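Comment thread on ticket #2218

A.B. wrote:
> Attaching the input chain for the structure job we discussed in standup.
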Amino acid sequence: MIDPVEEFKKHTGEVVPLPTAVPGNTPIYQTASATGHRTLWVVFVIMLISSLAFYIMAFRVPVQKRLFHILTAFITTFATISYYAMAVGDGVGKNKITIKHTQKHFPDTYDVIYREVYWARYVDWSLTTPLLLLDLCFLAGVNGASILVAVVADLIMILTGLFAAFQVDESPKWGWYAMACIAYLVIIYQLAINGRQTAMQKDNKTATFFAAIGGFTLILWTVYPIIWGIADGSRNINVDSEIIAYAVLDILAKPVFGFWLLFTHDAMSNSASIDGFWANGLGKEGTLRVGDDDEGA
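C.D. wrote:
> Ran it. Output below, let me know if you need it in another format.
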């Protein structure tokens, strides 16, 4: 009787072992480690302390001069809530990505990846970045129509970024990403072109300050989509690195931005002052009177 193994060895010289496991069957989980979680808690504390500082600074100036203080305090307040949610695990989901590997002589294999997506971060950005734009637009004196365009473009940028983060197919994902980048170009125009031209019509100190803090903001905001591209987009960096990168950007874009804005604004002798409803509420003519009899009744 012919032994098939021996015959095979005569022709090949060795026995090739059959695979005992099919690659791609085990899901890959890309999640944060203790380093990432500690980073979230550290940023939460920084945002909380910054918020308290901004509210204290607001109460130290007349209500007529609190516009920038209130807006800036709201920015870090929302960020505090967001980072707390991410730190305790309430603001995170998992995106399932399936990658197909085509084999020439074997059946196709698949890698299934579950990557953490911190959706609370997008909620944060959808609230804080419009407020940050208001800070810059009010500083420059941008008109209401331009402010509305910038804020709507900003919301489009954040929402399309969220859709891209949870998209499982590569082509639609980068389509959403392209939309977000186009919306960001609108924001750049409103700040770098329109905002700068408007600020230059003010005094030299305000124009110089707006150019500095506006340029600082645009540089930071340009880094965000780069991080997204190599993190959620192409998954070239792990979740911990993503958390740390966004943490550094958020600290610079919110607390550092806020302290720079408020300290400089408070030092300017011609800082904005708002009266009317902001400072005094509704006047006598605008109040509602309940229970008064009509005259002549």
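A.B. wrote:
> Thanks. Noting for the ticket: The chain has nine helices and three strands.
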